[in-house]
Prior knowledge:
Blueprint: H1 11-39, H2 41-63, H3 67-89, H4 103-126, H5 133-161
Amino acid sequence: MTIAQSKVFPRARLITVPVMLMLAAGIIHFVVVPHHYEHAPAHGIALGVIGGLEVIWAAAYWLRPSRRLAQAGVLLAVSMIVLWGITRVAPAPFTNAPEEVDLAGVASKLLEGISAAVLLGGLVRAGDKEEARPAVRSTIAGFLLASVMLGAVVYTAARVSQPLFPGLVSPAGHVDDHEH
């Protein structure tokens, strides 16, 4: 049985809700690109790429929902939440300080988080009815672990690549008071 065929979690909620939420998060990322590019070009580029990935995922999942795309959506959403969290406590790549928490950032993370939760719920419900609870828990734990690892890898790769792209560093070398 495919995710879209699940009778427990109807297509309307299973597909429309995460698509609209991820699309909204992508649009928020696009809206904040100019400010972040001005602050540190690398941040503007990264937010444009993240927004693009989210919009592309939303379109793909809307047109051809599948278990693999649902899994990719969970991985994308949760890893972006992890990356955002890391950059609130550790120096953001291409700057020397953690970024500030702001409304646009919190809104995009809430949208991504709810989208991931709906997708995970659909993945769990679309699974075999005989599937044991430990298997469901291990599936969820696996996605969360993979997402944490991906967020950490992206953060580390950006920090390590900073010296290779000096033109993408914040002109002031630090974060200002309005960040995503």
